[in-house]
Amino acid sequence: MCPPEHFGVLYEINPWMHQEVTVDSARARAQWEGLRSTLEQAGATVETLEPQAGLPDLVFTANAGIVNRGCFVPSRFRHPQRQGEEPQYAAWFRDHRFQVAELPDGIAHEGAGDALPFGNVFLSGYRFRSDAAAHLALSKLTGVAVRPVELADARFYHFDLTFCPLDDRRALVAPHAWDAYGQKVVAAVVPDPFALEPEETATFCANSVVVGSTVVMPSCPPRVGRQLEAWGFDVAVTPVDEFGKAGGACRCLTLALDVSIP
Ligand code: ARG
To answer: What is the 82 CA–ligand 1 centroid distance (Å)?
Structure first.
């Protein structure tokens, strides 16, 4: 995670961002600390990245790159506004002795914001931020099969706003945000999906972090909470709406370092 010292809405690169909206910095800090302590209470260990002036979206560390078994594939951001984050993440992973494997030049991919592990594959959303052309390279670099899913709604521009892996069988899914073929791809990979309605997806409830049996969520619509509890998960809601002003929530504010796909 990266503390929100320099967080703000300073440009508009997704439909949620409006420069005229001001971020309450004290509230953002308190929400970020709340997320951090909720994750720690659920059993996670949190490492931090140094914040940098001029990089307001560096808080969204999910977009740093893709991690698998000590290997790190750095993101290539679509928008110039975020490209300055690339060297910050690269330095952190080099310092922490990850093996760094680079995507070819000229291909955009926004890391764990778009590629999520499920079973022994990555499901990878593309179109708004990541290129379909990244997937072959990604699977070569990580040694993991990549199943592409085309995103269909600009409000849900990153895959992690539309999909939340819960365990080997279950996931929260937002098929309304994918094209028809993408819906089939996910259906073939996920045995027990729970489908969100568009209004539920818009609360960013899929942008949740699972630690053990706890689902750490920015919000939890009643129908979703009932299903998670029926499945035996504990729900921990921790509001991060200051970050919603930039189009992100809990999962975007984190990057899992312990991913291990065989
Ligand atoms: N303002 C950021 C952007 O538009 C938000 C990133 C949210 N990250 C995510 N993994 N969904 O790039």
So the answer is: 10
CB of 59 closer than 6 A to ligand 1?
Answer: no
Q: Is the CB of 252 under 6 A from ligand 1?
A: yes
pTM over 0.85: yes
Specify the residue for token string 């709406």. Answer: 241
Binding site membership of 158 for ligand 1 (Cβ less than 6 Å): yes
Instruction: Give the Cα separation of 29 and 195 in Å (integer).
Output: 32
Q: Is 2 a catalytic residue?
A: no
Query: pLDDT tens digits for 166-194?
Result: 999 999 999 999 999 999 999 999 999 99
| Cα distances (angstroms) measured from residue 95 to each of 106, 186, 253 | 26, 36, 21
14 CA: nearest ligand 1 atom: 4
Strand order across the 214-217 sheet: 209-211, 214-217, 234-237
